[in-house]
Structure prediction request, 89 residues.
Amino acid sequence: MRKAELISKVSDTTGHPIAVVEAVLSESIRTIINEVSKGGEVTLRGFGTFTVKRTKARVGHDFKTGGSINIDAKVQPQFKPSKYFKIEA
Prediction:
């Protein structure tokens, strides 16, 4: 499902105009991105938590040459689903 399909479905379910649903969803996403990019955390109960994952610089192994390579430290967003966010097999 793409963003436009999600907006349409929420609009149909709630009865709110597409423009309103799109504005709310876009601002919600923008707020989550801004908070996480500042190192913060956003928790949506029953859905999950958006955080920042930091990895340290380290030395790795290059399988092509057999030598060592330096892997830089990284900062990347991470999402951890809530225990209530279940997907049936």
Q: What stands out?
A: Strands lie at 42-44, 48-55, 58-61, 68-71, 74-81. Residues 18-37 form the longest helix (20 residues). The mean pLDDT is 93. Residues 1-38 form one domain.
